[in-house]
Specification:
By secondary structure, the chain is mainly β. The protein is built from no helices and eleven strands.
Length: about 120
């Protein structure tokens, strides 16, 4: 079983910055991808940023140039640096990690979510 613990959300004014982190622990053999999603009130959960084991990254158009996803040196931690925040970035941010616990046992784990609120 793989657990994810998120931290770093909070309240910030528009134009400000926040950094989120997500640490994975438990039975981890390899990690294929790490993603950040967000869900605004009354809206569906959307993919914000994605990084793969090979180091490639992808971003939603709405956050390109403002958000940066990165992995920690230990590779079991993923960060989301959010700059130039806008009120529409408000929502609950979730970390998602997909990988293998051993050579054949796949896992797909989610964090508990952390609230990001951007005031205008």
């Amino acid at each position: 079983q793989v657990q994810l613990v998120e931290s770093g959300g909070g309240l910030v004014q528009a134009g400000g910055s926040l950094s989120l982190s997500c640490a994975a622990s438990g039975s981890i053999f390899s990690i294929n991808s790490m993603r950040w999603y967000r869900q605004a009130p009354g809206k569906q959960r959307e993919l914000v940023a994605h990084t793969t084991s090979g180091g490639s990254t992808n971003y939603a158009d709405s956050v390109k140039g403002r958000f940066t996803i990165s992995r920690g040196n230990a590779k079991n931690t993923v960060y989301l640096q959010m700059n130039s925040l806008k009120p529409e970035d408000t929502g609950v941010y979730y970390c998602n990690v997909v990988g293998y616990s051993d050579i054949s046992r796949r896992f797909d784990s989610w964090g508990q979510g952390t609230q990001v609120t951007v005031s205008s």
